[in-house]
Specification:
- The complex is a heterodimer.
- Chain A has two domains: 26-133, Nucleic acid-binding proteins (OB fold (Dihydrolipoamide Acetyltransferase, E2P), Beta Barrel); 143-168.
- Chain A is built from five helices and seven strands.
- Chain A has helices spanning 2-18, 33-38, 40-43, 82-85, 140-167, and strands at residues 47-61, 64-70, 75-81, 96-97, 100-111, 117-129, 132-133.
- Chain A has a five-stranded mixed barrel. Chain A has a two-stranded antiparallel sheet with strand order 4-7.
- In chain A, a hairpin with a 5-residue loop joins β5 (100-111) and β6 (117-129).
- Chain B has a two-stranded antiparallel sheet.
- Chain B has helices spanning 3-27, 30-38, 42-71, 78-95, 98-103, 109-120, 136-151, 153-159, 168-174, 185-213, 218-233, 251-264, 268-275, 281-284, 286-308, 315-330, 340-346, 348-361, 374-392, 413-439, 444-455, 471-486, 489-511, and strands spanning 402-405, 407-410.
- Chain B is an all-alpha fold.
- Chain B has 23 helices and two strands.
- Chain B is globular, with a radius of gyration of 23 Å.
- Chain B starts with a helix and ends with a helix.
- In chain B, β1 (402-405) and β2 form a beta hairpin.
- Classes of the chains: A alpha+beta, B mainly alpha.
- At the A-B interface, α2, β1, β2, β3 and β6 of A face α3, α16 and α17 of B.
Chain lengths: 168, 512
């Protein structure tokens, strides 16, 4: 009996020591997208929670839509119902900071429904932060440098063309 | 003529034509300027005005320096052609990087130059940060650079020549192109652009319609279509979003892109022949035979291997995740339908090995593709068969061996030797890149994958290429992309010219 208990303890210790790379997480804990990709085999078909900015635009495919989110470690496609997708008002691009979404759903390493793509099928969506338009700050120095350099280049070009024509 | 006068004339010719090419490419900045105006992106607009002005001044300075040599109607020699080609690529890599750096989307000028060289050489690896928030102006510029790089900047400049310049062929050949579609170089350059523009209209329209069907808004569908066409046709691999081709989540979008990049990887001479009714050329040509044989074999082996290790479980997955990536690698495109790290984590060493081999082979000569090219593989392979047959047959039996590439050629030792030399150059560059990767602590298979991708101007990454990688590795990759694209000879001519100049200067100093 003692031998069996010893074996059990050793085996348990072994499993714990070699499982440090396998993420022990609660379903509510937010995971980085790059972590999902790095540990795709372990997390395949599991419910995960990710948080990231909606980028680009929603791509409506009938009852469901594709939303792409970027959490600054990587980006991933989220497959969600189109009615849920309509809740997202802002998508990130040059002029906008997109809504920050918290999404819980099933992660697929190679989704059978979507041709082997690594994706998340959303179960719940929460808008953590609403996006907004980005104010473009234009420095007056930049305007001056642009104007001066353009004037200089145009003058030199004119001189060069005059030189060429006079030599013909 | 005194040696100083000859030297000045050489410098003048090189300077004039380099300046001309710089000015032509600089004029293209008008397109991102108009894009920025259209989308009311004021900072990118100013960035491009500053960049265009600096590049114009640089181009004019070079042309002004060389104008005397141009007026003297001095002959363009082979060395001038090669040096003009290699020098203009280096200068343009720096000048075209200015808008990247001014935008703040690259962490250093080195990163900006890296991305421009990646675009010009149609490699497609990226160090630009935050792609999802990039301005339309800068995105237009990135994809335009890869499109121009695919056809060749010198091809563009030569097609805009007012009249045929003596020796233009020598500059044209300096860019690693040798196909003559029509008897003069200007005409050939224009034919190359004509072919590309016809495909641009067809390919962009197909992707645009498909983009609207898959749910993109019309304007954004058009921009995405244009970018993905430019990237695919040039076998570049850039995409406007972080997820590359995965952003679209669409099999049809991937298939259209795949058709475009396969077409882009074929020789312009082949396109020209087919357009002029010689459709038999597609299966008679040694390059297409070589390409279809190697891509079919590689796809089949990869499918067998990845189904054995249960990476993908059905045919659709196999096509979209395996065949797509194999063909993207083989045509040296670099559009990826899986994440970079998935190659390392899920494909296994054998899968990585298949990708390395196809990336090194690459597409066709005188196409937009990189790698050491199917033509050279075909010639060396046929040469090997020829040697074996010669050994086995009687010494009295003299037989000519031929290969077909647009027309029939006699397989000579010279052609086999020059093909083998270029393949050796690629393999050496690949080996050094692999060693350097391992020196910096990356695993061997990953270092080899990245090195093959850079050497073959592919652009698929296994995760090594990042802004955080060592500066020495970035510089090595820039040099490798450049050497691979110009197929070594032009770059070697430039190095030889510089060292020759230094040696002469040192000797004359010693004499005095």
């Amino acid at each position: 009996m003692l031998k069996q208990i010893k074996t059990l303890i050793i085996v348990t210790a072994f499993i714990i020591s070699f499982s440090e790379n396998v993420y022990a997480y609660d379903t509510g804990e937010i995971i980085d997208i790059s972590y999902l990709i790095e540990n795709a085999a372990e997390l395949d078909q599991q419910e995960v929670t990710v948080s990231g900015e909606a980028v680009g635009e929603a791509m409506n495919r009938g009852s469901h839509s594709w939303i792409n989110i970027n959490d600054s470690t990587n980006a991933i496609g989220i497959w969600m119902s189109s009615s849920e997708a309509q809740k997202i008002k802002y998508f990130g691009n040059y002029k906008y900071k997109g809504d920050v979404l918290k999404i819980s759903g099933t992660f697929n390493r190679a989704c059978k429904e979507h041709g082997g793509e690594a994706d998340i099928h959303s179960i719940t969506l929460e808008i953590e932060e609403t996006g907004h338009g980005e104010d473009e700050q234009i420095s007056s120095t930049k305007i001056a440098v642009a104007a001066l350099s353009a004037a200089l280049a145009a003058s030199l070009m004119a001189l060069f063309l005059i030189e060429i024509r006079s030599n013909k | 003529m005194s040696s100083i006068k000859i030297k000045n004339q050489n410098m003048g010719i090189i300077s004039y034509y380099t300046g001309f090419i710089v000015l032509i490419v600089t004029a293209l900045m008008t397109i991102p300027i108009l894009t920025s105006l259209l989308f009311r992106e004021w900072n990118p607009l100013l960035d491009f005005i500053i960049s265009m002005s600096i590049s114009t001044i640089a181009g004019l300075a070079l042309m002004s320096y060389g104008i005397k040599a141009k007026k003297s109607k001095a002959n363009i020699q082979w060395k001038h052609g090669f040096v003009v080609a290699s020098l203009s690529w280096i200068l343009l890599a720096v000048l075209c990087a200015i808008p990247y750096r001014l935008s703040g989307n690259t962490l250093s000028l080195l990163d900006a130059v890296f991305d421009v060289m990646s675009g010009f050489t149609t490699t497609g690896v990226v160090l630009t940060q935050d792609l999802d928030h990039l301005s339309n102006g800068l995105n237009m510029w990135r994809h335009l650079l890869t499109f121009i790089g695919g056809q060749g900047m010198i091809v563009l400049a030569l097609s805009l020549l007012v009249k045929e310049t003596g020796g233009a062929y020598k500059i044209y050949a300096g860019e690693g192109k040798d196909v003559e579609l029509v008897p003069n170089v200007k005409g050939t350059a224009r034919q190359i652009w004509k072919i590309s523009m016809v495909y641009l209209i067809i390919g962009t329209s197909a992707l645009w319609i498909n983009g609207i069907i898959i749910g993109l808004r019309p304007v954004s569908a058009f921009l995405h279509a244009l970018y993905i066409f430019e990237s695919s046709w040039s076998t570049g691999g850039f995409a406007p979003m972080t997820q590359n081709i995965m952003y679209y989540h669409s099999a049809s979008y991937e298939i259209i892109a795949m058709i475009i990049f396969i077409l882009g990887s074929l020789n312009f001479g082949l396109h020209y022949a087919i357009w002029h009714g010689n459709s038999r050329e597609i299966y008679r040509n040694i390059e297409t035979q070589s390409f279809f044989a190697t891509s079919f074999a590689a796809s089949m082996i990869a499918l067998l291997w990845l189904s054995k290790i249960e990476a993908y479980s059905d045919a659709v997955m196999g096509f979209r995740r395996i065949v797509f990536n194999i063909l993207s690698a083989h045509t040296t495109t670099g559009l990826g339908s899986i994440y970079a790290r998935q190659f390392a984590l899920e494909w296994g060493d054998f899968g990585i090995m298949i990708l390395i081999i196809v990336m090194l082979i690459g597409g066709s000569a005188c196409s937009t593709a990189g790698g050491f090219k199917g033509l050279r593989v075909g010639i060396v392979f046929k040469g090997l068969i020829m040697d074996i047959k010669k050994i086995l047959s009687s010494e009295r039996n003299l037989r000519l061996y031929k290969f077909h590439h647009i027309k029939d050629y006699i397989l000579e030792d010279g052609a086999i030797k020059s093909s083998a030399i270029i393949i050796c150059c690629y393999m050496t560059t690949f080996a050094v890149g692999t060693m350097l990767g391992t020196y910096y602590g990356y695993p061997l298979s990953e270092s080899a994958f990245e090195s093959a991708s850079i050497t073959g101007n592919v652009g698929l990454s296994i995760g090594i290429t990042a802004a955080s990688m060592p500066a020495v590795l970035k510089i090595y990759y820039i040099v490798t992309m450049y050497l691979g694209r110009l197929e070594f000879i032009s770059a070697f001519a430039l190095i030889g010219y510089i060292f020759g100049g230094i040696k002469k200067a040192c000797l004359s100093k010693l004499k005095h």
